[in-house]
Amino acid sequence: MPTFSWSKEDDLSFVENYRPKKKEIKHLRILLVGTTGAGKSSFINSVGSCLRGKINSNRAFTDATSGNSFTTKFKTHKIKNENCESFYPFVFNDTMGLEPKNYHGVHVEDIKLVMKGHVRENYTFNHQSPLSEGDEGYNPNPTPDDKVHVLVFVADAGKVSLMDEDIVKKMKDIRQAACDLEIPQVAILTKIDEACPKNKTNIQDVYKSKYLKEKVDMFSKQVVGLPQSCIFLVKNYSSETYTNDYIDTMMLNTLGHIINYGEDYLNNQRV
Known about the structure:
Layout: H1 8-17, E1 28-34, H2 40-52, E2 75-80, E3 87-94, H3 108-115, E4 150-156, H4 165-180, E5 185-190, H5 192-195, H6 210-224, E6 231-233, H7 245-267
Parallel strand pairs: 1-3, 1-4, 4-5, 5-6
Antiparallel strand pairs: 2-3
C-alpha cells in the first residue's frame, strides 16, 4: 500500500491549487470503472463533500437497494469550488458497472471507446451492443479534453476475494487497452469500514490493518496486476450527515495521487 500521512491541509491545498500545465487542456479527465455497487458514484459525491465542507449526495445519483447498475448513461461530473463561482479543473466520468458475462453491465468495448474520447455525453450504455462508428452517441473527432487522462478501478474491499472470474477478465482487458493508450491506472478499494468493522470508529488506522493489506495484495496480484503503491483505501460518505477530517484526508490524498498520475500523462503527451 502507498505511504500515508494524515495532513488534510497539505492535500486540500494541492487539490485546490491544481491547474493542468498544458494550456490546451481545460480539465483533467478521470474515468471510474468497476463492479456494480462498488461505490463509483459515491466516490464522486464524497470528493465533492470534502472539497465543499458539507455532505453532497445529489451530484452523481446512487442506489442503495438495486442489484443492478444505477448509472446507465455516460456522464461527466464537475465539482464546483467552495464559493461556487467556478469548477475545479478536473472532471469524473462515471460508467455503468461491470457485471458477469453480458448481463446488465457496461460493455468492455464501450469503455475502450470512452478512453479514446469517442463517446458523447448522455450516451445510454447498451450491455448487448457496444457503440459503433456512425451511431448517434459516437464522437468521431475527439479533442484532447474528450480523452481520458487517468483510469481508476473501483472495487468493494470486502468483495475482492469474491470477484467473478468474468469481471476479473474484463478488468484486465480494460487495463491492457489503457496500457496500449499509455493511460495511467490506479485503483481504489471502497467500503473499508464494512470490510473491516474494527476501522468503523478508527478510520485513521486503516493503513495498519493486516486484513485490508491482504485485500490490497489480493487485488494487486489476482485482479488487475497493479502495484500496491497504486491501490488506495477510501471510505465514501454514506450515512454521515457531517464531514469528517479523517475521511476527508483519505479522500484528498487519494485524489492528489490520481491528479499527479494524470498530470504526468498529460506532460508526456503531444496534445
